[in-house]
Task: inverse folding
């Protein structure tokens, strides 16, 4: 990439980003002139009231959506410059997603769900199997490999979701309320896992959450309110 | 195929819905196979008829006979390579519904004229040595479980009005799959002598087949033959063998047109059934498609997944249907003699297979495009 190193130590750079949705004739201004830098190796928690645009921001960083204005770069790649086709390949290489509702494919077993992102790589079948085994072992679900999602508990499903998110060893792991649908105990297990991934494996993680208990595990917390980011919660 | 598990899983998601769709596709293709076999039975004779053969019949109608002595005169006409005659015997074996054609013929002439009938040399020798000898096609021999050496009694309501008894000396096969092997042939010399007893019809034959030197000259030769017998008590009408069979088919109606009509209606219905299954399959899965795209599946890959799913469905249903149709038609003529060339031609099986692929693409393309155009962020909100 010609404009590297765009980072000055920051892996993710969000600069002057504005996001406007159009619903019918109505314009919904969600983000306005927003700036954010996330250094490599950080575990960032993103908090804010419902509807404040947390998921919208996460989608922009993950290349699922494009900003109305401003620039988003991850590891030096300016994602607003990529075509839809390039962006899909870019996501496969750089981003792992973990969703609130796990979003597993119900007709595939745990191991085949985890394998999905690897199908987009050039790995052989044997290599894919090794990666899947490693990822499932990291989330402690080796013994559930052959299970279908509906036979797993919520916490187990989310661990499969995390295994799927990390199996390609992505640059960045994006989690949208990963504990939002779990009880405290399962939620803690997930947070332990994310923390371990961050501390022991150096994964950069951005996690949206409503739960102060969850954000406490992060190395930094930022708050989104009325389209702006602050370092302290509004009273 | 790395994505096989995903495609199969999606198809098996609603087992009942998939089975019903599969079943309706299967039924449509069985029907397709059957109608192809019917069409083959009715028009197959036209296509197989030798391009170098002409049929000479009485100008007034096929049931009027011609003098056997015409043969020598025909063979003298320039462009005629050979001639052979046949006569309608119209006999009944045991029961009128056991229909098959019998004709008295001159063995060497006849076998030379119709090389599509394969008769082992020793059986030919036996036929030439046995005055009451007869040969029959494989199809009819198997139908009545006749063996060489059997005595075959055939009642003729036309000739002598009594049972004739023949010695079966040979069983012939067809050179090609469509060759008619239902007919029964016996010796003209035996026939002509025997019918002297009723003092009617001696020296008369039903029709002639002539072989021309050059198929391109067939029309000119036909005219020359008809001119030769002009103003005689028995004028002739000479036509290519194909036209003779075609005239028969035309009487039944434009079969191909009717069959095409039925099949269009069936396939239009299948199009709607499969199309609705596929669009439902995509609609209920929008969120999952969003997940695949988030993971990094490109729009084209998502399009391919949906198309592969619809094609797998139609090719599985179509393939099973074609196989079943083939099994059902492999037993041959269901009418017991009326449609000797009833079979499902390989060419039509291939057309059917191509049709099943086309059906998959046509029914899958709209839902697949819908899946392709989904915007990830919107799709994920619908999980
Ligand atoms: N695709 C879209 N089309 C129209 N409006 C949208 C779209 N996506 C988000 N919005 C709107 O943008 C605003 C922010 O939505 P977003 O999902 O980012 O909020 P959030 O902070 O994640 O909320 P929550 O905590 O409830 O998940 C909301 O008002 C939402 O209705
Ligand atoms: Mg949200």
Result:
């Amino acid at each position: 990439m010609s404009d590297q190193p765009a980072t000055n130590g920051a892996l993710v750079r969000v600069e002057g980003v504005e996001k406007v949705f159009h619903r019918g004739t109505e314009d919904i201004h969600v983000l306005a002139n927003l700036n954010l830098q996330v250094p490599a190796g950080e575990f960032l928690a993103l908090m804010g009231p419902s509807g404040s645009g947390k998921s919208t921001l996460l989608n922009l960083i993950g290349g699922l959506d494009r900003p109305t204005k401003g620039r988003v770069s991850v590891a030096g790649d300016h994602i607003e410059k990529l075509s839809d086709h390039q962006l899909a390949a870019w996501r496969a290489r750089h981003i792992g997603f973990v969703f609130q509702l796990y979003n597993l494919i119900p007709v595939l077993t745990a191991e085949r769900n985890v394998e999905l992102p690897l199908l987009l790589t050039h790995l052989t079948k044997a290599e894919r199997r090794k990666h899947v085994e490693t990822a499932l072992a990291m989330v402690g679900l080796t013994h559930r490999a052959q299970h279908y999602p509906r036979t797993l508990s919520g916490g187990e499903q989310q661990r499969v979701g995390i295994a799927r998110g990390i199996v390609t060893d992505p640059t960045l792991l994006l989690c949208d309320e990963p504990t939002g649908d779990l009880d405290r105990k399962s939620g803690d297990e997930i947070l332990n896992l994310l923390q371990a991934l961050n501390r022991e494996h150096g994964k950069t993680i951005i996690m949206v959450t409503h739960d102060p208990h969850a954000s406490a595990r992060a190395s930094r917390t930022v708050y989104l309110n009325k389209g702006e980011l602050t370092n302290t919660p509004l009273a | 195929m790395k994505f096989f598990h995903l495609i199969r899983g999606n198809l098996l998601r609603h087992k009942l819905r998939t089975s019903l769709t599969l079943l309706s596709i299967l039924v449509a293709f069985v029907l397709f196979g059957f109608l192809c076999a019917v069409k083959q039975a009715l028009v197959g004779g036209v296509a197989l008829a030798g391009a170098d053969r002409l049929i000479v019949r009485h100008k007034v109608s096929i049931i009027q006979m011609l003098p056997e002595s015409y043969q020598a005169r025909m063979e003298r006409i320039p462009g005629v390579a050979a001639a052979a005659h046949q006569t309608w015997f119209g006999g009944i074996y045991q029961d009128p519904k056991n229909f098959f054609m019998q004709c008295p013929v001159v063995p060497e002439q006849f076998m030379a004229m119709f090389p599509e009938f394969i008769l082992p040399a020793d059986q030919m020798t036996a036929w030439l040595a046995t005055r009451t000898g007869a040969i029959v096609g494989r199809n009819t021999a198997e139908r009545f479980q006749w063996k060489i050496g059997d005595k075959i009694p055939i009642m003729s309501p036309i000739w002598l009005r009594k049972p004739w008894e023949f010695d079966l000396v040979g069983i012939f096969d067809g050179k090609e799959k469509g060759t008619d092997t239902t007919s029964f042939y016996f010796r003209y010399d035996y026939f002509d002598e025997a019918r002297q007893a009723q003092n009617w019809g001696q020296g008369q034959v039903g029709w002639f087949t002539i072989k021309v030197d050059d198929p391109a000259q067939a029309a000119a030769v036909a005219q020359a033959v008809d001119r030769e017998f002009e103003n005689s008590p028995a004028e002739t009408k000479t036509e290519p063998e194909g036209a003779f069979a075609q005239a028969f088919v035309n009487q039944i109606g434009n079969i191909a047109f009717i069959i095409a009509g039925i099949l269009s209606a069936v396939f239009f219905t299948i199009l709607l059934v499969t199309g609705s299954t596929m669009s439902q399959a995509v609609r209920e899965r929008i969120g999952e498609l969003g997940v695949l795209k988030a993971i990094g599946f490109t729009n084209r890959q998502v399009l391919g997944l949906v198309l592969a799913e619809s094609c797998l469905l139609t090719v599985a249903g179509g393939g099973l249907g074609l196989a079943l149709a083939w099994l059902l038609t492999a037993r041959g003529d269901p009418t017991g003699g009326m449609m000797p060339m009833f079979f499902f031609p390989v060419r039509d099986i291939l057309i059917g297979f191509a049709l099943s692929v086309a059906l998959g693409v046509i029914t899958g393309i709209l839902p697949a495009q819908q899946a392709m155009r989904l915007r990830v962020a919107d799709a994920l909100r619908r999980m």
